[in-house]
C-alpha cells in the first residue's frame, strides 16, 4: 500500500497483520481524492491548507494522503494498539510528525476538539452503524466545522441514517461504499 499522489507519492505504508484493520486501498483513495479534487462542491481548495480529521484512522492512509496533497494538519483518532503502531510508523515515514496529532481514543467518545476540522474522513468497521454515532459524537465535541466535507466509508449494503447531512456524492468499489456529505452549517 502506498500514498497515491502529492509530495509523498509512492511512499509505502505499513499495516498491521490480521483482519482487525482494513486499510482503504490505493484505488479507493485515488477515486475519493479525484472526486474531491474535481467536484464543483469541493476542489483543491477543500484540501489544501485545511485541518483534516481521520477517525477510525487505522494506518492513517486517508489523513496522510490529504497531507501529501496539501492539507495543513491532520488529527488521527484510532484506539487499536496494532493500528496505532502502524499509524505512528507511517506518520514518521512520511515525516509528518509536526503536522499530525494522534489520539488513542474511541471515535464515538472523542475528547473536546481544540479547533474544528473542515475535512473529515470516517472509515469504521462495517456493519456496526458507527458512522451516525461517530458523527454525532464528533459534532458534539466540536471536531466538525460548519459546512465541513465528510467522507464516510461503509459496507456496500449499509445505508446509515444521516438526516442532518447533505449527500453530495456516493460511489461503490467492491464491498465498500463511499459517501461524501456536507455537514450542516
UniProtKB/TrEMBL annotation:
This is 16S rRNA (Guanine(966)-N(2))-methyltransferase RsmD. InterPro entries: RNA_MeTrfase_RsmD, SAM-dependent_MTases_sf. It holds the Pfam family Cons_hypoth95. The keyword Methyltransferase applies. It is an enzyme of class 2 (transferase). The keyword ATP-binding does not apply. One of its GO terms (molecular function) is 16S rRNA (guanine(966)-N(2))-methyltransferase activity. Keywords: Methyltransferase, Transferase. It comes from Teichococcus aerophilus. Gene3D superfamilies: Vaccinia Virus protein VP39. Its EC number is 2.1.1.171. It comes from the Bacteria.
